[in-house]
Amino acid sequence: MSGERGEGGGTEFQRILETLRTRIADGTYAIDSHLPAQRELAEELGVSRDTVQRVLRELNNEGWIKSRQGSGSRVVKSPTHLGNPKQEVPRVRATLGTFVARAFAQPTVRLDVFTLTSESLDAHIRLQAEHIRLKEITPERIELRILLPSESLDLPYPRMKKSSEDQSAQPEPDQSGRLQDRLRAITGRHTISLRAALRDLQTEGLVPSVRVEIRHVPLAPAFKLYLRPGVEALFGPYQVVERPILLDDGVEVEATDVLGLGSTLTRHVNDEGDPDSSGSVFMESMQAWFDSCWLLLADAP
């Protein structure tokens, strides 16, 4: 594992990984374009080429880029879009960026979220925080409730992939445990980040009222859910995949995992004029499900 350290005590590997993810998501590196050469990235970002190589390998494993020796790294997918509400086009397939932007365009921002790690949400929250600092939007109140899986829950993913020679064999418990620890570390890092981003807005006097609540439930998420209560929802199932995962010490392991960043999200809108419409029924049922989990299953605040 690289000894380089970044701001806030995070590893340089994680800092560069999140930087390149954001650049791909916001179009700085567009789909079908090539990333700068490894040496250029290392010089620009102030890290070693070894760190850049590890980051590119992780992006390749996650499906963001395709790397080929002698041809560099080409962007093939942008799993999460840091959108602008002005670019919104009515469609069934939706993006989290435009959803969060619509929420933050209101005087009162209300969001209820059920997710595995909050990684995607963190990126969009921090983006909206910058819009607030630039006086582009001026919400008066922010209310965010997040449901996450219990930290003690033995999740079905990520797990070490079973050997193809013996499907009945159990994965090494130590490696699977490290994968679960890695997932919990990712969750902790992003919940701390988004909580701080929002509370700083209140501390700086930019938003008069901010309330962020995070609770844990004994459920393994099969889907992610984003709700603007009474208005709209985004719903996306987690697709189970087999992929390499790079551990903190540089060891790469084959694992069964889910790619939350690549989840296909569908948008459902509450129709106040028709409570029996599919959108209204979906909103009512999912809000009731979220509230029941929040009140009856989640740990006490």
TrEMBL record:
Residues 157-180 are annotated as: Disordered. PANTHER family: MANNOSYL-D-GLYCERATE TRANSPORT/METABOLISM SYSTEM REPRESSOR MNGR-RELATED, MANNOSYL-D-GLYCERATE TRANSPORT_METABOLISM SYSTEM REPRESSOR MNGR-RELATED. Pfam families: GntR (PF00392). Residues 10-78 form the HTH gntR-type domain. The keyword Cell division does not apply. Gene3D superfamilies: Winged helix-like DNA-binding domain superfamily/Winged helix DNA-binding domain. Keywords: DNA-binding, Transcription, Transcription regulation. It comes from the Bacteria. SUPFAM superfamilies: Winged helix' DNA-binding domain. It comes from Streptomyces mirabilis. The keyword DNA-binding applies. This is GntR family transcriptional regulator. PROSITE patterns: HTH_GNTR.
